[in-house]
Design goal:
The protein contains 5 helices and 3 strands. The longest helix has 29 residues. The protein has a 3-stranded antiparallel sheet with strand order 1-3-2. The protein has 2 domains: about 60 residues; about 50 residues.
Length: about 110
């Protein structure tokens, strides 16, 4: 975990704290906060880098970044749900797994 000054030093896009605090105020990045200041995990650092690429490097506006981040969040949520479903399916007896897979293959657009 890193404090805000470490993040500002690590990521080249920031000339001052205000830009990162704006990202936080917009809900684009949601770090933890302790008694002293913000605390960033690796996932926060990755998201900051993504926001910098979208908003600063690619010059997407605020509304566009909101939409893109919403879609990215939905994708990650769907992936997490799919992983849970796959794990639950793998815990089932083989005949149940085979029946589900057969049904799934029969309902795909390619068939």
């Amino acid at each position: 975990m890193r404090r805000i000054d470490e993040v500002l030093a690590e990521i080249d896009h920031f000339s001052d704290r205000a830009i990162l605090e704006d990202f936080i105020a917009r809900g684009w990045v949601c770090p933890l906060r302790d008694q002293i200041d913000y605390v960033f995990e690796e996932v926060d650092i990755s998201r900051i880098r993504l926001v910098c690429e979208l908003h600063i490097d690619m010059n997407f506006g605020f509304e566009t970044v909101d939409i893109i981040l919403s879609l990215v969040d939905q994708l990650y949520e769907s992936r997490a749900r799919f992983d849970k479903l796959a794990k639950a399916l793998n815990e089932q007896p083989e005949d149940v797994r085979n029946a589900v897979l057969k049904s799934f293959k029969g309902n795909t657009p390619s068939n």
